[in-house]
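Data deposition worksheet. Section B asks for the primary sequence of the deposited chain exactly as it was used as input, without tags or linkers unless they were present during the calculation. Section C holds the resulting structure in token form. Section D is free text for depositor observations; keep each observation to a single sentence. Incomplete worksheets are returned to the depositor.
Section A, Depositor: J.P.
Section B:
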Amino acid sequence: MPLHAKPIDYLIEALSKLPGIGKKTASRLAFHILRSSPSEAQELARAILDVKEKIRLCSICFNLTDEDPCWICQDARRVPEILCVVEGPNDLIAIENTGNYNGKYHVLHGAISPLEGIGPEQLKIKELMERLQHEKIIEVILATNPTVEGGATTLYLTELIKPLGIKVTRIAYGVPMGGEIEYSDGMTLSKALEGRREI
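Section C:
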């Protein structure tokens, strides 16, 4: 015998599919939505649909955006000769939040992970190399996560970029091994950027 009406069960099931959301949290969220006003529920539904319908990848840096190119690529005040390469959009946001970086970005959308079937061709590496051929980049900062996959991606990119005569640096390991850039505090990320070194 079901515990709730079917629509509530469906909502709990849908919410529990989100990362980090278990059945208890999903149930709390479902009942919060149920108690909210119809306009609040519609606002939430509209926000979810807007994200799915309006967000796309920037044609230059591959960050998530609702306009192309994204606001970072459009910003003429940024230093165009320095390019920070990150695994994902959350890493870009974490670095932006430090307020210590004013260059451009390139988002790979992952890291090389043979065990998961992710090779260089699944990432935005070809597009990165095209940018390096056409833009006047003097330094590439590799800001991959300090994991086995992040390290493998860094090594792979270093071998591709070094022959182009471009300075390649890696953010310092103020970010703990096994940690992720997205979850690091601003001070740790600031120090990691300041302490980057040439590879």
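Section D:
The radius of gyration is 20 Å.
The chain has eight helices and seven strands.
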